[in-house]
């Protein structure tokens, strides 16, 4: 070759490797070439003769070489070597060879090259896009999933394989997306396993400081993109290193790390000394310092991996025992019979080892000094020689350590190898020992090199063999390349039957074989092999030529190492250990020994011996190696070839011969050649065409085959310049070189980019044109507007000029007219003023007239008394009970639709001329002096009432203030007067007609009068003579809506055939009142016998029979014979068919003291039987008020007298109706005899006759009665009704004054005396209750005037109801000081004497076909017997007799009307008794309940108003209703026998009704639990239900079982037994469904108990949907009174599901408050600075709720920013505190602290300062105030001030401090200039000690900054204070005082042999973790939060608390240990900062 000057060449100047050079001179004559080269940085010149130096051309590699060596043009060893050298010198240790990565060990760390950001750069990027890196191989393997992948890392020992393995694993852990907390834990465990296995399996060798002495195959499993598990397989641990090491080498790292990490106390515990004192550690004659990882990190790794404390102690014991065994030494000892034995030099080590292993020391001594041989049934102990004893000792130690290592690998696999990985994707990483050629190679090196030979074969197979086989299969033109095949070497080592390993196994099975016999067999069988070498004479070794060169192996110890036999007696000794760890590893050793035992076979297949063959180490290793190769064969490989740069382990120094040798035996040149010449890119034809079809320049014919399309496309591509074709078309695929593939990809990318640019160009052009069009249109509009504006301005100037001219002319004309106008205006003004005065006079006169009309329209005393009772009374029905229903409903009964034909003859004028003395119809404004009708004056009373009613009509029409209940009450009173007297009815109607005549339909007064007329016609009809006249009047006068309604009322009664005498008993009901107001019809829901509900339309005159007939008309049965029963929840009201339906309802709506007429309706007893309580039950513990003093009787207080006079003054004496109340007062307060015999009119109507003249009743003392004149009433006979109740005789000689109103009147006490059923208030001493006979009756209606016909009670349970019906009209139910009928009954029974009245009831009175002498006789007869049980037989008989004569009853949960068959229709009714003669009350109650049927509520649609009921929760059968749950989960035996009989013999609907009864409220205890519970929980379930009943008031509370104890009992049982929670939830759902308890608070209290339970416990998944539906339906219905409490229950249950429920039992105060309906507590929370805020804290309020509410006050709305704030609980006496957890309940915390009596307070502050201060928009003042008060103390303390080393702060910081001092002065609201004595308190404490700044200078600086802040407000200066400090580096820091080991030169503990603890300040802020100098606050060390890997709290044996922080990157980590008692708070803050930083980064990525 002709060379020229300047040519680049490679040449070898005799250095053993080629170097690059440049030709300087060419002397052709002398044939000398002068070449210059750089050697060690200096240029040197070489003169080369022909044939010297091996000159060849060189390609310029540039300054940093080629990333991919397949791109080299001159491919040979020199270019490969120097390309690696150039890159290595630049710090680029990675180079690609195609997809193979070559890594050269730098022997130093590159932290910046392995950070998290670098790892994310390679994630998802194709191979070759980014520079070569180990992460690129990891990314390629991860991208190739789901097919299995394997990363094969190979190379010599010390080439960096272990570190590369860790980096690949850390890359996968860093970039693989997280699968939740479980995946993160598994990933951390896998990472922590690597340093742990390194410590136990790596050691320092002559060539590597961290050499892996075992093989590791790591399989990582992926699912859904996340790491779900891993598996580690280990191969061939080097056991010999445990007992011996070569010079310069060490034992395994763990021994040195353990001895260096244990404390002195721990060393003493295990009997350990320094490392150099142990024989197993000091043989290498090297340093014995700690290893690469400290002992604390190993402990942390074990903790992460789940190794328990006991297991960790066991590991230390085993390691210490191994060290103690190594120090056991022996002396020769001559035994008897000439045998040689040994004796232990010192038994101390034997005893320590036995003690640590928990085995017998005698057994250990025997194991190392003798051998045990079993011969038949006996054991022989043979003494060992000294060499054999040492071998036995070493074998024992090796077995212990190997067993420990195997156990550790198994333990790690049990933790990281999770289940369910059979279908997971897999990436495997192989890290196996490298090729070794030591000074003396033994059995271990033979196995290691055999494994490397197999890996090299695996590499050659995939790179060369399979590649070229693919080319041949596709029929490509290809010249096969040769490569160094190492298969013969593998055959030499392992081929049967004479392979070296097989020969070794055969020799190992012969007892008398030796190492020399094995060597001789090797020589004999392989002497002729080229790969085998015999040694020189006398050497016990043989040589093998491996792929990496020849290695000589010394056979000394081969057989023993291969056998590795552990004696049986040693295994038995280890198995006897009491240490769990030793026992487990012994089991593994024994299983390993027995697993591979096989029986040897002969050539004929028969066993030649019965002794099993023990598997050898070589055999086991060969088997595991084959399994490894098979596993790898199923994966796609990625190769990493690690190269060792030098033998001395120097950093960044490459030994060229060393590297060249490795390149040669690795076959890298052949590898690169096949990668360069081959076709690594292979695409199927169709895929190739689809991907690159865009590159076709000309279209081809349709139907062209894919192969031709590929050829046409590839032929159009330019050549790449590489030798040979760039592509070939195979049989099925296109084969491309990488250069052509890159050109295709580049062309495709360019074409796609061009297409995208074209699209963008057109789109942008369109957008620009559209924008231009809009701009042009906008310009046109602007021009038009401007031109228009200019014209408008011109027009405006012209118009102003014209206006000016017109103004001047018009002004002149106007001035002429102004004089005339002024005079005219003056005259008109005077006229208007006169008219105004006249109008005001008329209005004043009219107002006086109206006031005078109302003033003399006095209210009757009776009506005034009724008005006085309205206060505090709420009507039972109101608008909320009315609903509008759409659709069609039956009814109402038809009325006559035609008016009489002769109606025209009946004009109202004719009627007035005949019956009104010719009175002219016209409205009157003054009261009349005589009735309008002549016949109305027939009775004096009617005469007076007619005049009084007219006044009421005038008030009705004129009183504008009349509204609400008073309006209806006035109307009802007028109707009541008409119902009271038949003669008044026509008079009242005529008066109304007279007033409405001529008013017009639009008048409001007329509307009210027409409504009043309608109310009258609802209750009575005019006389027959007046009827048609009234029809004619209505038809002529009434407006259209009212006309139809009024005529319907008049015609309705005529159609019924009753004539004109029809009259109802009661005033109109609220439904009638509202229907008239709204002009619509009425309807009512009726419950039918078949449990269905039917809404029927009714009117005011619908009878019960008519309504029932309409309801049953749809059932297909006879409509005659049915009637209505009213159930109001407390009693049943029966009716005959002729009773009016609206009378049943109106009777229930009467207001207090309203004069009720006598009722003929039949009533039954209370629906629920009241429980009779024993005498021991006491009243609630609230004593009654003290009775009045005796002097109060004779001389009432003046205040009371004044009150009674004021009540009297309310009545007017001028009223004719009131004259009865103001008759002449008697001169004496004692009544006259005539007065004593007088009776009220109502009583005369009730009684059949008068009492005998000779009978006289004892009267109360005159002194005990109040004079009538003090009551404001006269002594008229009409007023006797108001005093008749007071004239009852007192109880015996009772002198005890009556009780006043009790403060506990709202509570109900069920205390009853002996023989009584129940009462409200009972005096515990005399059982005397407050009754009407003992009460002030001046404001109570009379007893006699309101006694109704009531049914005689037939059984004891009806006595109370009878008394209710008898005496309830006497009492005012709205006043607590008046008792009810039960109280009076208790008084009667408790007094023991007969009670009589002034008007005796001695006449015969028939009540329900029973004859009684008198009312008193009946009462006394009824209550003579105290023991009710004695009369049960009589009562049962009466019950049966009476039930045979009355109708059957159907009852419903709510206050519905019931349709019932009448007895006269032939309907047979069932009896309530079963014919037995003796029955208990419980049996009677059970029989009565069995006849009750529940009905479901159906929605009806009709255009009517109907009454809505609110008695309880209707049953609903939805998907998740309680009824459905009961059918599926309730016990079957809960149903009663009758119900089960129904379920078997009747329809499913009947069975469902039985379940419906089961899920409704019940007031007595249950027999069995609702759910299927174990037998042991059944009593607890019953106890819980009993507590529920007592808490709700359904049964009385026991003195020992208060409501608080009831709650505690339920919570205790539910906490202890999870199965009871569903049971209690079902019980409470039952009690809140259709609750009809007599206790009014039962339902509400059940809901409140449910809210308490929901705050503590959840329910099962089966019950959850039903419970949620139950709560949701109740909370969403605002018509129900319980909806608020149900919403609280729903909130509590959801909070429990999220936060886990309350932990501590509620306090007594909390239970009491919740029971009273107070669900929130006002809790005080402190803010920084001492301010306080009150937050309503509920039962389920957690810390997060309080933080959110307080943050809203601060204006912090972002959830991420709210996480920066915390709530601390400061307890007095605690030095440190922790913030409360976000899901911790507030009341749990406060209750516990209040119970312990510790003073505490809750403080809210900011704990994390990740986000910047709020500035825009302006923050709220409270936000600034809170942060200011939190930061200011730290600033003044000097924590935020950072001083440099010289102690002088920067000038900028000095100015900031001066300005802050001025701001602080102004923040204190001070306006004067700060003085020197004030400034020293405004500066940080360290600033005062700065000597360079004098106090005077500080004063000057602060005062110079004062003018800028003097004019600001305090809130403004506080905001500026924060803004100034926000720029300081330590702003927002949390400071902690810590101690840390700190060496003189830095914090690296391992570099200093005498570390010391130093006090530091640990600061946490958004910058990261900072260690500060405690004096100057200078940052000594700083770690960002992205570098903090984990934290761990550790507590030492002496109780000190430490915090370990692991910091670093993927490549290098270290643990920082600090001592602090606030380790938990620091760890929490670090975790919170890291979380918030990750959230911020995620948000930024989402925005980008």
Could you characterize what this model shows?
With 2048 residues, the protein is an alpha+beta fold. 43% of the residues lie in helices and 12% in strands. The chain contains 66 helices and 45 strands. Strands 25, 26, 27, 28, 29, 30, 33 and 34 form an 8-stranded mixed beta sheet that branches. Strands 6-7-21-8-17-11-12 form a 7-stranded mixed beta sheet, sandwiched between helices. A hairpin with a 6-residue loop joins strand 41 and strand 42. Helix 33 runs antiparallel to helix 34, helix 52 (1619-1631) packs antiparallel against helix 53 (1642-1654) and helix 61 crosses helix 64. The longest helix has 119 residues, at 738-856. The chain is elongated and about 165 Å long.
Instruction: Please give the number of β-strands.
Output: 45
Largest sheet: 8 strands, mixed
Overall shape: it is: elongated
Query: How much helix, percentage-wise, in residues?
Result: 40-55%
Task: Write the topology of this structure.
Elements: E1 8-11, E2 19-27, E3 32-39, E4 42-48, E5 56-57, H1 77-89, E6 94-97, E7 100-104, H2 116-122, H3 134-143, E8 149-155, H4 161-175, H5 181-201, E9 202-203, E10 211-212, E11 215-223, E12 226-235, H6 240-243, H7 253-261, H8 264-270, H9 295-304, H10 309-326, E13 330-334, E14 340-344, H11 348-357, H12 361-369, E15 370-375, E16 378-383, H13 386-416, E17 425-431, H14 443-473, H15 487-494, H16 500-508, H17 515-526, E18 532-533, E19 541-546, E20 549-554, H18 558-563, H19 568-575, H20 580-595, H21 617-633, E21 636-643, H22 656-665, H23 668-677, E22 681-684, H24 685-692, H25 706-715, E23 727-729, E24 733-736, H26 738-856, H27 861-868, E25 882-885, H28 908-915, H29 940-958, H30 965-980, H31 983-996, H32 1004-1019, H33 1024-1037, H34 1040-1055, H35 1070-1078, E26 1082-1087, E27 1093-1098, H36 1104-1112, E28 1122-1127, E29 1131-1134, H37 1141-1148, E30 1162-1166, H38 1191-1194, H39 1198-1209, H40 1233-1237, H41 1241-1246, H42 1359-1367, H43 1381-1391, E31 1405-1407, E32 1410-1412, H44 1415-1423, H45 1432-1443, E33 1457-1461, H46 1481-1490, E34 1504-1507, ...
């Amino acid at each position: 070759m002709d060379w020229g000057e300047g040519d680049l060449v490679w040449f070898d100047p005799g250095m053993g490797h080629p170097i690059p050079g440049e030709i300087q001179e060419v002397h052709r004559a002398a044939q000398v070439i002068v070449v210059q080269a750089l050697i060690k940085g200096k240029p040197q010149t070489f003169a080369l003769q022909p044939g010297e130096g091996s000159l060849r051309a060189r390609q310029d590699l540039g300054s940093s070489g080629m990333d991919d060596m397949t791109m080299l043009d001159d491919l040979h060893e020199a270019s490969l070597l120097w390309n690696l050298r150039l890159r290595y010198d630049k710090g680029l240790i990675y180079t690609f060879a195609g997809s193979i990565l070559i890594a050269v060990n730098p022997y130093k760390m590159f932290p910046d090259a392995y950070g998290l950001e670098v790892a994310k750069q390679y994630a998802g990027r194709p191979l070759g896009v980014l520079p070569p890196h180990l992460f690129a191989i990891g990314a390629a393997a991860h991208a190739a999933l789901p097919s299995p992948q394997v990363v094969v890392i190979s190379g010599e020992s010390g080439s960096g394989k272990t570190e590369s393995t860790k980096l690949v694993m850390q890359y996968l852990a860093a970039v693989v997306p997280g699968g939740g907390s479980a995946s993160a834990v598994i990933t951390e465990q896998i990472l922590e396993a690597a340093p742990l296995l390194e410590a136990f399996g790596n050691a320092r060798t002559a060539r590597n400081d961290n050499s892996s002495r075992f093989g590791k195959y790591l399989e990582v499993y992926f699912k859904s993109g996340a790491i779900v598990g891993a598996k580690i397989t280990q191969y061939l641990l080097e056991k010999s290193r445990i007992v011996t090491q070569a010079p310069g080498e060490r034992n395994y790292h763990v021994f040195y790390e353990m001895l260096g990490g244990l404390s002195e106390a721990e060393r003493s515990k295990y009997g350990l000394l320094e490392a150099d004192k142990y024989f197993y550690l000091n043989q290498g004659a090297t340093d014995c310092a700690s290893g690469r990882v400290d002992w604390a990190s190993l402990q942390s790794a074990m903790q992460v991996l789940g190794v328990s404390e006991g297991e960790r102690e066991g590991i230390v014991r085993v390691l210490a025992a191994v060290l103690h065994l190594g120090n056991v030494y022996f002396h020769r000892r001559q035994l008897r019979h000439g045998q040689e034995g040994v004796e232990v030099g010192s038994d101390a080590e034997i005893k320590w080892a036995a003690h640590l292993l928990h085995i017998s020391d005698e057994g250990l001594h025997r194991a190392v000094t003798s051998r045990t041989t079993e011969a038949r049934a006996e054991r022989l102990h043979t003494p060992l020689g000294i060499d054999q004893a040492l071998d036995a000792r070493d074998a024992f130690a090796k077995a212990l350590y190997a067993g420990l290592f195997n156990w550790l690998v198994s333990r790690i696999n049990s933790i990281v190898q999770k289940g369910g990985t059979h279908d997971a994707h897999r990436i495997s990483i192989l890290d196996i020992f490298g090729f070794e050629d030591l000074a003396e190679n033994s059995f271990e090196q033979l196995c290691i090199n055999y494994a490397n030979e197999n890996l090299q074969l695996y590499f050659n197979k995939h790179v060369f063999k399979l590649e070229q086989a693919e080319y041949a299969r596709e029929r490509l033109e290809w010249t096969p390349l040769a490569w160094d095949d190492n298969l013969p070497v593998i055959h030499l080592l392992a081929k049967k039957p004479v392979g070296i390993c097989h020969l070794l196994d055969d020799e190992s099975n012969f007892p008398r074989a030796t190492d020399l016999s094995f060597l001789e067999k090797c020589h004999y069988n392989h002497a002729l092999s080229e790969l085998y070498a015999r040694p020189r004479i006398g050497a016990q070794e043989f040589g093998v030529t491996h792929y990496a060169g020849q290695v000589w192996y010394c056979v000394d110890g081969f057989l023993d190492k291969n056998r590795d036999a552990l004696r049986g007696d040693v295994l038995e000794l280890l198995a006897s250990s009491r240490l769990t760890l030793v026992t487990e590893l012994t089991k593994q050793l024994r299983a390993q020994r027995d697993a591979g035992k096989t029986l040897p076979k002969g050539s004929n297949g028969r066993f030649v011996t019965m002794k099993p063959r023990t598997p050898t180490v070589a055999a086991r290793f060969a088997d595991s190696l084959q399994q490894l190769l098979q596993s790898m064969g199923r994966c796609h490989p990625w190769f990493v070839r690690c190269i060792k740069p030098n033998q001395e382990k120097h950093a960044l120094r490459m030994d060229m011969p060393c590297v060249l040798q490795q390149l040669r035996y690795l076959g890298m040149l052949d590898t690169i050649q096949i990668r360069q010449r081959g076709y690594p890119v292979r695409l199927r034809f169709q895929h190739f065409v689809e991907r690159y079809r865009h590159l076709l320049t000309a279209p081809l014919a349709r139907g062209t085959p894919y192969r031709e399309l590929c050829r046409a496309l590839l032929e159009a591509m330019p050549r790449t310049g590489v030798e040979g074709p760039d592509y070939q078309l195979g049989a099925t695929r296109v084969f491309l070189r990488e250069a052509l593939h890159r050109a295709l990809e580049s062309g495709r990318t360019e074409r796609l980019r061009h297409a995208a640019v074209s699209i963008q160009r057109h789109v942008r052009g369109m957008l620009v044109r559209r924008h231009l069009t809009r701009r042009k249109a906008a310009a046109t509009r602007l021009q038009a507007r401007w031109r228009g504006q200019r014209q408008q301005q011109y027009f405006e100037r012209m118009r102003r000029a014209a206006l000016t001219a017109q103004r001047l002319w018009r002004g002149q004309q106007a001035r002429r007219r102004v004089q005339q106008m002024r005079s005219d205006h003056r005259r008109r003004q005077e006229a208007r003023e006169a008219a105004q005065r006249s109008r005001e006079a008329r209005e004043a006169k009219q107002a006086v007239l109206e006031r005078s009309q109302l003033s003399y329209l006095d209210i009757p005393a009776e009506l005034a008394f009724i008005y006085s009772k309205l206060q505090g009374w709420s009507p039972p029905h109101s608008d909320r009970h009315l609903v509008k229903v759409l659709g069609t409903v039956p009814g109402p009964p038809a009325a006559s639709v035609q008016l009489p034909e002769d109606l025209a003859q009946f004009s109202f004028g004719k009627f007035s001329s005949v019956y009104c003395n010719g009175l002219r119809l016209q409205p009157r404004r003054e009261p009349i002096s005589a009735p309008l009708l002549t016949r109305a004056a027939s009775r004096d009373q009617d005469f007076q009432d007619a005049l009084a009613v007219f006044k009421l009509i005038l008030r009705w029409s004129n009183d504008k203030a009349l509204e609400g209940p008073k309006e209806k009450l006035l109307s009802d009173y007028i109707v009541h007067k008409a119902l009271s007297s038949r003669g008044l009815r026509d008079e009242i109607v005529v008066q109304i007609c007279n007033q409405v005549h001529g008013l017009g339909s639009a008048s409001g007064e007329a509307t009210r009068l027409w409504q009043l007329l309608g109310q009258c016609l609802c209750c009575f009809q005019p006389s027959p003579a007046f009827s048609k006249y009234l029809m004619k009047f209505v038809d002529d006068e009434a407006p259209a809506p009212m006309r139809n309604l009024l005529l319907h009322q008049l015609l309705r009664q005529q159609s019924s055939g009753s004539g004109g005498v029809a009259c109802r008993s009661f005033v109109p009901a609220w439904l009638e009142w509202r229907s008239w107001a709204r002009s619509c019809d009425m309807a009512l829901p009726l419950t039918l016998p078949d449990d269905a509900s039917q809404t029927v339309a009714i009117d005011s005159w619908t009878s019960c029979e008519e309504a029932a007939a309409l309801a049953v008309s749809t059932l297909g049965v006879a409509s005659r014979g049915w009637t209505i029963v009213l159930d109001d929840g407390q009693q049943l009201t029966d009716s005959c068919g002729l009773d009016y339906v609206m009378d049943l309802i109106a009777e229930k709506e009467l207001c207090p003291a309203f004069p009720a007429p006598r009722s003929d309706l039949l009533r039954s007893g209370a629906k629920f039987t009241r429980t009779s309580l024993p005498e021991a039950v006491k009243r609630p513990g609230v004593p009654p008020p003290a009775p009045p003093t005796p002097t109060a009787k004779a001389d009432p207080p003046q205040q009371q007298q004044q009150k009674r006079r004021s009540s009297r003054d309310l009545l007017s004496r001028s009223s004719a109706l009131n004259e009865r109340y103001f008759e002449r007062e008697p001169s004496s307060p004692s009544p006259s005899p005539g007065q004593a015999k007088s009776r009220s009119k109502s009583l005369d109507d009730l009684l059949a006759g008068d009492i005998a003249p000779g009978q006289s009743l004892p009267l109360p003392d005159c002194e005990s009665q109040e004079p009538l004149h003090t009551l404001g009433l006269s002594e008229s006979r009409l007023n006797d009704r108001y005093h008749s109740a007071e004239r009852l005789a007192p109880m015996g000689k009772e002198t005890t004054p009556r009780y006043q109103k009790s403060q506990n009147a709202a509570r109900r006490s069920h205390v009853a005396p002996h023989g009584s059923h129940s009462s409200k208030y009972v005096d515990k001493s005399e059982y005397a209750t407050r009754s009407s006979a003992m009460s002030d009756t001046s404001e109570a209606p009379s007893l006699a005037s309101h006694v109704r016909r009531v049914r005689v009670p037939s059984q004891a349970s009806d006595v109370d109801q009878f008394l209710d019906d008898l005496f309830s009209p006497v009492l005012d139910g709205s006043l607590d000081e008046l008792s009810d009928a039960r109280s009076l009954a208790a008084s009667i029974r408790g007094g023991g004497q007969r009670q009589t009245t002034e008007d005796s009831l001695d006449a015969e009175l028939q009540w329900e076909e029973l004859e009684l002498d008198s009312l008193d006789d009946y009462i006394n007869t009824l209550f003579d017997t105290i023991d009710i049980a004695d009369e049960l037989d009589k009562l049962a008989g009466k019950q049966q007799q009476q039930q045979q004569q009355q109708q059957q009853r159907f009852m419903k949960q709510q206050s519905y009307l019931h349709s019932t068959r009448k007895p006269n229709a032939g309907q047979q009714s069932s009896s309530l008794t079963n014919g037995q003669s003796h029955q208990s009350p419980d049996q009677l109650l059970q029989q009565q309940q069995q006849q009750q049927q529940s009905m479901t509520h159906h929605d009806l649609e009709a255009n009517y108003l109907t009454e809505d009921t609110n008695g309880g929760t209707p049953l609903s059968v939805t998907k998740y209703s309680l009824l459905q749950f009961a059918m599926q989960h309730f016990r079957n035996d809960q149903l009663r026998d009758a119900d089960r009989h129904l379920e078997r013999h009747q329809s499913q609907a009947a069975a469902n009704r039985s379940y419906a009864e089961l899920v409704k409220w019940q007031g007595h205890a249950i027999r069995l639990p609702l759910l299927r519970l174990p037998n042991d929980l059944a009593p607890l379930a019953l106890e819980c239900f009993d507590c529920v009943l007592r808490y709700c008031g359904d049964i009385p509370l026991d003195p020992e079982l208060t409501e608080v104890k009831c709650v505690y009992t339920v919570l205790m049982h539910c906490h202890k037994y999870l199965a009871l929670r569903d049971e209690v939830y079902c019980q409470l759902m039952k009690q809140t469904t259709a609750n009809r308890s007599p206790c009014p608070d039962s339902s509400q209290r059940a809901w409140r108990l449910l809210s308490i339970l929901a705050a503590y416990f959840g329910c099962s998944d089966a019950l959850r949907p039903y419970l949620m539906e139950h709560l949701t339906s109740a909370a969403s219905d605002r018509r129900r009174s319980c909806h608020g409490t149900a919403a609280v229950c729903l909130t509590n249950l959801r909070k429990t599901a999220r936060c886990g429920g309350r932990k501590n039992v509620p306090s007594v105060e909390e239970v009491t408050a919740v029971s009273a309906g107070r669900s929130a507590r006002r809790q005080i929370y402190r803010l920084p600075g001492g301010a306080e805020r009150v937050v309503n804290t509920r039962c389920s309020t957690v810390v997060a709720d309080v933080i959110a509410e307080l943050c809203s006050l601060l204006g912090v709305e972002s959830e991420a920013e709210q996480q920066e704030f915390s709530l601390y609980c400061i307890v007095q006496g605690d030095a440190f505190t922790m913030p409360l957890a976000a899901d911790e309940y507030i009341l749990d915390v406060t209750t516990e602290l209040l119970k312990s009596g510790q003073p505490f307070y809750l403080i809210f502050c900011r704990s994390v300062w990740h986000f910047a201060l709020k500035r825009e928009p302006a923050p709220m003042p409270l936000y600034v105030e809170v942060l200011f008060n939190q930061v200011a103390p730290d600033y003044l303390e000097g924590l935020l001030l950072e001083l440099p080393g010289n102690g002088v702060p920067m000038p900028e910081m000095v100015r900031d401090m001066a300005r802050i001092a001025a701001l602080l002065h102004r923040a204190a609201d001070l306006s004067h200039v700060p003085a020197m004595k004030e400034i020293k308190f405004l500066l940080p404490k360290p600033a005062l000690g700065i000597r360079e700044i004098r106090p005077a200078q500080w004063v000057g600086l602060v005062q110079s900054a004062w003018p800028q802040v003097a004019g600001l407000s305090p809130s403004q200066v506080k905001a500026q204070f924060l803004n100034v400090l926000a720029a300081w580096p330590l702003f927002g820091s949390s400071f902690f005082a810590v101690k840390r080991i700190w060496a003189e030169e830095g914090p690296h503990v391992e570099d200093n042999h005498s570390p010391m603890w130093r006090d530091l300040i640990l600061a946490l802020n958004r910058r990261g973790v900072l260690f500060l100098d405690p004096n100057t606050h200078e940052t000594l060390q700083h770690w960002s939060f992205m570098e903090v890997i984990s934290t761990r709290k550790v507590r030492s044996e002496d109780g000190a608390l430490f915090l370990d922080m692991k910091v670093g990157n993927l490549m290098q980590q270290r643990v920082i240990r600090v001592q602090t008692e606030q380790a938990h708070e620091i760890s929490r803050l670090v975790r919170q900062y890291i979380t918030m930083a990750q959230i911020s980064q995620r948000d930024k990525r989402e925005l980008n």
